[in-house]
Amino acid sequence: MAEKRISVADFSFSVTGNSLLRYMAGSGAFKDFFTDREPDFYVDSCLDEAEVLQSASYRERKVCYEISFEGIDCSFGKAGDMLYFDMISPEKDSVLVLLCRPGDTTVRATDGKYSPSMCRFGLWMALNILCIPRKCAAVHSSVNVCGGAAAMFLGESGTGKSTHTRLLRERYPDMFLLNDDSPFVRVCDDGGIMVYGSPWSGKTPCYRQEKYPLKAMVRLSQAPYNRIRALAPLQAIGALLPSAPPAFSYVDETSDMVCTFVSDVVSAVRLYHLECLPDTAAAELTYGTVFRDGKSSGE
Fold first, then answer.
1. Count of beta carbons in the 10 Å neighbourhood of residue 117
2. Of 159, 190, 224, 293, which is most buried with the most CB atoms under 10 A?
3. pLDDT digits (tens, 9 = 90+) for 222-258
């Protein structure tokens, strides 16, 4: 079976399956992520879709989390002793299913005729399932780099993450964007925290195969003023957890893993809450607090 290997977060992933490989070949996002390294993990599209859908373990699966986007219905949970994730096409004529035992190095997937959207999200989910036991996951955020270190900006969609990071780059031209939606964050063996560019960057095409130490995290919320403060550890956990892959919080095995990951990150990196306007003054406040002197301030 044909195979491609990609490197994300210093891990090498072997990927097979006609739909996944066609998607990767046709998307410029993966150009700088292909590698010849020996695989650490495998996304093995070796399963027959009809056989999986008719199996007793899948038909009796326990659905723990559901989400829909672009007309695609997704669910995550347990199928027998395995984690499963599935995606149903808008026409309801195909189902992409991922299966993995918790902590295993292989995600097995069905091989069928799947849309680019299904392949993109399915591959992203497969990498997260494989990475989270190793204290690594994608974090929904926008990341700027300055002076060789990165700051990660968190917030729900529409809170102004991309706007704020753009204002920072306009005000401080030596700053640049690493990723605008889905960077991967990894807790290293020495306890340090690294943030990585990835082939997933939302609506902003920014696909850097680069990594930097994570200097700080900032959760944004809109306000009629600009004010920033450092959060206490429990507050920081609550601020970061929603930005990790949300499905993991609904299954016991992955819930423990994502809690460990989040706890280790906030133990090593300060997290701030920024209440702000979408203006240059907010960017200056962030720069002075996060990138320059690391002291909380406000106005």
1. 16
2. 159
3. 999 999 999 999 999 999 999 999 999 999 999 999 9
Smallest CA-to-CA distance from 212 within 189, 187, 180, 178 is with 178
DSSP string across 91-135: TSS-EEEEEE-TT-SEEEEE-S---HHHHHHHHHHHHHHHHGGGT
Tokens for 77?
Answer: 């949970």
Contact of 215 with 200, CB cutoff 8 Å: no
Q: Which residues of 253-270 are buried (b: 16+ CB within 10 A; e: fewer)?
A: ebeebbeebbbebbeebb
State the pTM of this model: 0.94
DSSP annotation of 29 reads: G
pLDDT tens-place string over residues 170-186: 999 999 999 999 999 99
Q: Are 43 and 14 in contact (CB under 8 A)?
A: yes
Question: What are the residue ranges of helices labelled H in the chain?
Answer: 18-26, 49-54, 56-59, 116-131, 161-171, 233-240, 252-268, 280-286
What token pair was written down for 266? 């906030």
